[in-house]
Design goal:
17 strands; globular; 2 domains; 1 helix; mainly beta; 245 residues; Immunoglobulin-like; single chain
């Protein structure tokens, strides 16, 4: 049965995924390394290490989901038996570290990279029977990307699909025409009238065949010049903008 994350839950999950994917230490009391696993090409196993740096005992649940994207670029997650992560549940005392072993049970696709997430969710601590607390309990949820490379050649390739202007913001449309993911981590813009190029962080994953867009601030209202995208698999991508849309 397929499960999907929508609405407010998806926004909360997406925010926590950004933390997990971009930082080694994602919370003052939690340390997770690495923040991504790459499998395939003879590598069928990986290890994650979760450390409890806080003062309280914490329990966690581990779940593996297949990661896909819709035609509009939204993330979707579904149950899978392709990947196994153990242990499924564990408890850490302050200062302890847990090794999570991740193993690929299915063969790599010969043509296209496949993507998964290992979700690590903090379990709520038992509440005293007479507790009258009405506060909101925030539980940490991490989503570690796992990419399984195709058994054939890996070809990262991004196509520029156009731009849209909304005030002093320009949106650059992109399509992943390759067979492996591309993660965009930074967007830079420079134009002849600018004394220095602008730079802004980004965190956009484009899975093979999927579309997305990145926002470019235009502090001087100038939509010409060059946009540069820093990626993990395709290097630095450069797009020359012709005229204001």
């Amino acid at each position: 049965m397929t499960e999907r994350y929508h609405g407010k839950a998806a926004l909360v999950a997406a925010f926590l995924l950004i933390l997990a994917a971009s930082l080694g230490v994602v919370h003052a009391s939690v340390d997770i390394t690495p923040t991504r696993l790459d499998l395939g090409d003879g590598q069928s196993r990986g290890i994650l290490r979760l450390g409890n740096q806080g003062d309280d005992t914490k329990s966690y649940e581990v779940e593996v989901m297949r990661w896909t994207q819709t035609a509009e670029g939204s993330d979707e997650y579904s149950a899978t038996d392709d990947l196994l992560a153990v242990p499924p549940v564990f408890t850490l005392e302050p200062g302890q570290e847990q090794v999570i072993r991740v193993g690929l049970l299915a063969g790599a696709d010969p043509e296209t990279e496949t993507a998964y997430r290992v979700f690590i969710t903090e379990l709520a601590a038992p509440q005293p029977e007479k507790s009258s607390s009405s506060g909101v309990s925030m539980r940490l949820r991490l989503g570690i990307p796992v990419f399984v490379a195709p058994s054939g050649e890996s070809v990262p390739r991004i196509e520029w699909t156009g731009i849209q202007r909304d005030g002093d913001t320009m949106y650059v449309g992109l399509r992943n025409a390759g067979n492996v993911h591309v993660k965009i981590s930074e967007v830079r813009h420079k134009a002849p009238e600018m004394q220095a190029e602008s730079a802004q962080p980004a965190l956009l994953y484009l899975l093979p065949g999927q579309v997305g867009r990145v926002a470019v601030d235009l502090p001087q209202g100038n939509a010409v010049g060059t946009v540069l995208l820093e990626t993990d698999t395709a290097g630095t991508l450069e797009y020359a903008l012709r005229a204001s849309p």
